[in-house]
Design goal:
heterodimer, A: alpha/beta, Amidase signature (AS) enzymes, eleven-stranded mixed sheet, 16 helices, B: alpha+beta, Arc Repressor Mutant, subunit A, 3 domains, three-stranded antiparallel sheet, 16 strands, elongated
Chain lengths: 488, 484
Amino acid sequence: MATAESGACVVARDVARGHISAEEVLTEHLRRIRAWEPKVKAFIRVMEGDALGAARAVDAKRGRGEKLGRLAGVPIAVKDNILVRGVETTCASRILQGHLASYDATVTQRLLAEDAVIIGKTNMDEFAMGSSTENSSCHATRNPWDTACVPGGSSGGSAAAVAAGLCALALGSDTGGSIRQPAAFCGVAGLKPSYGRVSRHGLVAYASSLDQVGPLARSVADAALALSVIAGSDPMDSTCAAQPVPDYLKELEAGVKGLRIGIPKEYFLPGLDPEVETAVRAAVEVLTGLGAEVRDISLPHTRYAVSSYYIVAPCEASSNLARFDGIRYGRHSPQARDLGEAYELARGEGFGPEVKRRIMLGTYALSSGYYEAYYATAQRARALIKADFAAAFQQVDLIATPTAPTAAFRLGEKTEDPVAMYLSDVFTIPSNMAGNASMSVPCGLTRSGLPIGLQLIADCFCENSLLRAAAAYECARPFPMLPEAPRA
Amino acid sequence: MPGYEMVVGLEVHVQLATKTKLFCACPTDGSAAPPNSRICPLCTGQPGTLPVLNRSAVELAFQTALALNCQIAPVSVFARKSYFYPDLPKAYQISQYERPFATDGWLELPAGEAPGKRIRIRRIHLEEDAGKLLHAAGSRELDCSWIDFNRGGVPLVEIVSEADLRSPEETASYLKTLKEIVQYIGASRCDMEKGEMRCDANISLRPAGSTVLGTRAEIKNLNSLRAVKDALAHEFQRQKQILDSGARVAQETRLWDPDRTATAAMRSKEEAEDYRYFPDPDLPPLAAGAAWVNELKAKLPELPAARRARLRKDFGLGATDAEVLTSQRALADYFEAAARGRRPPAAKTAANLIATELLARLNAESLAADCARINPAELGALADLVADGALSSRGAKTAFAAMWEGGGAAAEVVAALGLAQVSDDGQLRAWVAAALAANPQALADLKAGRSQALGALVGAAMKLSRGKANPELLNCIIRESARA
């Protein structure tokens, strides 16, 4: 019977069959939240009351003999930059404190339509800008594997909540690695869909041409199930593709045999933690053993990814975040004596330092006279990165790399050095720049007991290849789960 | 003292006549609705919202460009224009910048000022309107501003001309012609009073004969044809004085104040904002396939200039009548419905009745021609009676007024009011005989060759007929009698 360890597929199946009620499933997760949350602080808001109502509604629906959805009774945590109607949505920023979402994001609608139970809003780096969930105006989240370490970011709350079993599934958003890097740090599966695979409507935009919503889960099957539910075209998002959505869960059964996997030499350079390298190479061996064909490849423009990302993303962010002016909603300063002061005070007090840094970077790079040198050049670099992947996917079906150069680092370790923090996303950023699909699956622990992530990258809209390989690996090398409560 | 030539280019914003806004499903009828009753999360800039392009706005925009002889770009790109202002909820306006959807068009000026002159159109782009700020004036404590977002997100096209205009009159003619075309194709109502058509002018002066451009000022807030003419005339004088004094014209933006009939400086070039344009990542580039563009082109109605020429040719109308009738599509439609199948004299009479009587009534009651209270076929029938000599033109006016007020068929109204003109030879001769008998001296004068006596005799016969006699026939019979 389903328990808090079971994960989404088992919970949905057992609730649909009536083996367990949605309320019992929820209660068990709430119990784990009470045990773990004081140490981990994965959530900004646990929606106990709303969730209980939703779980009971699912049970009542079943009681009436109605067919239940694909996520029946599955407790899902949602990153705080995804709108849930009527619920405070802050993006972990002071500027949106008290802001109630006036509508449901498309992904939220799709979860609810499948009878999911939203259990809470998870912590994040403010406006998804960061790699450690330390840039939150609420509090820092800690890694449940070692609470002295960060959970990664920016979807650190979602990753920590899934890892500690505080929910069966979570949604995050990934702009430069914000699903995959925390998934790697917390030992869970995290999938960044191809750009356009999932609607961004109701995701508070950070960098519109890079943002994607995706699942974090304790199993590849759960991630596949979640993707099947949230993917697909949306009349509210013109960048969302009309591509048909396969049943990703069914696709998993195909296995890894016959898939060609490329190993890009640019991802295995000095600076990569030897423990991480060993684990990733061992994982590739496992895939080879399962029938995958492995070959060395090159993605020569990888080295431009981080620098061009830190032009494109801040440019878009400076524009996307301009709407937070304190006039229609959000933080407004009563001290303001005129319009200029109203803007300065709302934004000056409302945004944290990393957000301000990126807004200033972007504003500068888009300024008249600098646009060509920065934004236009970065777009050219982006085109080269895309072309690298296009060439690689002529030869291989998947690319395997480490998700991050190291395992989770300690709180405070990189907060004083933004560039060191930025480099934590060096392996995940290229996939956002190219718009293809990628995911992280756990591939072992360091000697000190921290999870390591294997990143798999597939061509646009080839999520099924990712999931096939990841599922085959997971089956061969099951990853442990954390206990019911933290070690004392 | 050298003479100066005025060089003007216009930027005209036209609100497209769509049912919904450019990027969301909110209705566009917000100017008549309570404030903030036509808004949604998107057009108030709520977090997480994304623009979705309105296809019918694109089609109206493309048709506008096609009617103005522009090239439609196979791919155009939406860009964000960033600036902070409370009426701009996202703090950027979605517009087009480097790659507008249309370029390289022209418009030909009609009869009047510089007839036949082609004014080139540099570009047309599609963009969203901002909200509206309402300033509540009161005590200092109560002094505040309100924002109405009903207008926010309403679709606009900005039509930018080359600096081809040379006088206030020419500029007004361009604007009037542009307005006619845009109204004709149904792309906008262009009601300037309601802000559905707004105009900024770039104006500079140069010595007559020179080909070098002088420093320009941009004049904003030109919201009527009158304002355009007045502001340009005023700005010409202002810049002329500066140049005559040997000083330089500053490149700046000036605001026209119609009450003071003066422009005032708004901001200089140094203060010009940096809008930080960049392609909007939320909107894919707009692809204009040839098939789609051709289909839209085929759907365009006959444009005013072509229709004017056709009406003159087909119905023998004079330039002025043709101009008046084609100034509104509905009026021209009305005329064609009235004139259809009638002989040229009747068509001309119909044109005359429409240009005078009908237009006066429509204007007085603020009606469009398709809401006229006399249907075109009956107006045509009325014109037939005049052309056939059965009704005088004065009688036609009386009948028209009666039909407008009370309805009814032309023949019935004319009969009921006894307006029919008498052309019966026997009856006319009886009136003439009586008039001659009563005025022997006048008859004698006429016989002696003093032709001014004719008028008196016609008048006398007309009086006997109580105004119903056909004056031309009376004339003939009296002349005939004098010769006998």
